[in-house]
Specification:
The structure is a single chain. The protein is of the alpha/beta class. It has helices at 13-24, 37-47, 59-73, 96-124, 135-139, 145-165, 183-186, 190-198, 208-219, and strands spanning 4-7, 28-33, 51-53, 76-81, 127-132, 170-177, 230-233. The chain has nine helices and seven strands. The protein has a seven-stranded parallel β-sheet with strand order 3-2-1-4-5-6-7, with helices on both faces. Helix 1 crosses helix 9 (208-219). The protein starts with a strand and ends in a 7-residue tail after the last strand. 44% of the residues are buried. The mean pLDDT is 96. Bound molecules: NADPH dihydro-nicotinamide-adenine-dinucleotide phosphate. NADPH dihydro-nicotinamide-adenine-dinucleotide phosphate binds at residues 8-9, 11-15, 32-36, 39, 55-57, 82-85, 105, 132, 134, 177, 179-180, 182-185. GO terms for molecular function: acetoacetyl-CoA reductase activity.
């Protein structure tokens, strides 16, 4: 049977493209989401990829969901921690809740999901984990103290966990997208977006396709020697 992949936030935006490319690469795929029931239904109708609703910032929900998926579909061998949110504000207006929500959803979720699959992957001596970071975790970004901290944390988390997983053939890598043309980026005011694009040497926003190509590579069986790395896919905007 082909390997089973779970993609968090896998039914829209970058995650949807990751789910679809993994399926095209022969994986069985399950896409998680948090609240967009209509988008999830439409996604499954269009792609045939099943979805499962749970909050990745809730540890118990993650453990329960992984147990349910593994009971119904078999072991999760590929995990893509893609779910993420922004709650942007300058420090003066950044509330404790905005901080907590972003840290818990973007970074806490990596702990929650990795913890839930770790024992199984270790026992079976195979795993592919990809965590979606961000250029703003590498370079920082005005008005994104919470998001930059969470994404930067993902990069450290990835390197540390990769060292633990190596002995059991579990690779743990990060993909750090630059600015990608999704709803998250379309919410940026047009004048700000124009300035952002002007700073991208490649002269355009990234696409979900660009990012998913990197994830597919890192989750391939023969990417065994790539671990603890961060693949920056950003059109040359930040060479880290
Ligand atoms: P979108 O806002 O388009 O999609 C976010 C996805 O995450 C949705 O599927 C959403 O589910 C899911 N999600 C959000 N919160 C939770 C939660 N608590 N539990 C489960 N699922 C949740 O984001 P993008 O596609 O733009 O971004 C995907 C990833 O890439 C994120 O980690 C983001 O930080 C990162 N990134 C994006 C960049 C960009 O330019 N777009 C640049 C750099 C990094 P639902 O639909 O139910 O809300």
């Amino acid at each position: 049977m082909s390997r089973l992949a779970l993609v968090t936030g896998g039914q829209r935006g970058i995650g949807a493209e990751i789910s679809e490319q993994l399926k095209a690469a022969g994986r069985r795929v399950i896409a998680n989401y948090a609240s967009s029931d209509d988008a999830a239904k439409a996604f499954t109708e269009r792609t045939g990829i099943p979805t499962i609703k749970f909050d990745v910032s809730d540890f118990d929900a993650c453990v329960a969901a992984v147990a349910k998926i593994e009971e119904e579909h078999g072991p999760i061998e590929i995990l893509v921690n893609n779910a993420g949110i922004t709650r942007d504000a300058m420090m003066r207006k950044l509330t404790r809740k905005m901080w907590d929500d972003v840290i818990d959803t973007n970074l806490g979720s990596c702990y929650n999901m990795c913890k839930a699959v770790w024992e199984g992957m270790s026992a079976r001596k195979f795993g592919r984990i990809v965590n979606i970071g961000s250029i703003n975790g590498q370079a920082g970004q005005l008005g994104q103290v919470n998001y930059a901290a969470a994404k930067s944390g993902i990069h450290g988390f990835t390197k540390a966990l990769a060292q633990e997983g190596a002995r059991n053939q579990i690779t743990v890598n990060a993909v750090a997208p630059g600015y990608v043309d999704t709803e998250m980026v379309r919410a940026v005011p047009p004048d700000v977006l124009e300035k952002i694009i002007a700073r991208i040497p490649r002269g355009r926003l990234g696409t979900a396709h660009d990012i998913a190509r990197g994830v597919c590579f890192l989750t391939a069986d023969d990417a065994d020697f790539v671990t603890g790395s961060t693949l920056s896919i950003n059109g040359g905007q930040h060479m880290y």
